[in-house]
Amino acid sequence: MVRDRRRYTMTTSPFMVFYGNLLIILQYIWSFELLQPVPGLFLKKEVPFRELGSKMLCLLSFWLLLRQALTERKESQREEEVLSGIRVIHTHKKEDKEVMDESGGHREMMEVLGNTLMAMLNKYWIYICAGMFFFVSFEGRIVMYKIIYMMLLLFCVACYQVHYEWWRSMLKYFWMSVVVYTMLVLILIYTFQFDSSIHVWFNMTGMSKDK
């Protein structure tokens, strides 16, 4: 959605790591017998290994992202120190050069892996998104928000078939609409799990609990 996606991703990586660690710690504490479950957040599980394992696996990607951000920041600071002439002793320069060569090789390897991953995502990302649309639309019981997901998918496919240039021009706004709609659905599903919210949503929407 933003132009400099890489910089914003690196900037937000510490927050994502902190938030993920906080969720894992809280879920581990809530798995104790004396604590009551929280609807939609910490469910009571006899063996929470699967939930904790899946969250830790997802958190691993943010840890790798944070490590890459810290590595690049350290390399940038080192290059600024070298260019400003702070290090004047020949032995220190030699050690810095060796360290920079090692880190440069590591950085080149990470760039190659990153470019390969980006090339694969650019080629197959549309199929992943379409597959997620189908999974969300047909998984479980068919309800209204899943029907809207299917309508969005069919609208996107129809625009692609009718006029490719129109499809490319509206694709950004289409995904923005999907993200906003998904956030709204998640908020509604989460708040509806609390007993006190059922009457509120019934009065606002006129829909019963079964709907």
Automatic annotation (TrEMBL):
PANTHER family the record matches: PIEZO-TYPE MECHANOSENSITIVE ION CHANNEL COMPONENT, PIEZO-TYPE MECHANOSENSITIVE ION CHANNEL HOMOLOG
Keyword Membrane: yes
GO MF annotation list: mechanosensitive monoatomic ion channel activity
Native species: Oncorhynchus mykiss
Protein name: Piezo TM1-24 domain-containing protein
InterPro entries linked: Piezo (IPR027272), Piezo_TM1-24 (IPR056769)
Transmembrane segments: 12-32, 52-70, 117-136, 142-161, 173-192
Domain Piezo TM1-24: 1-210
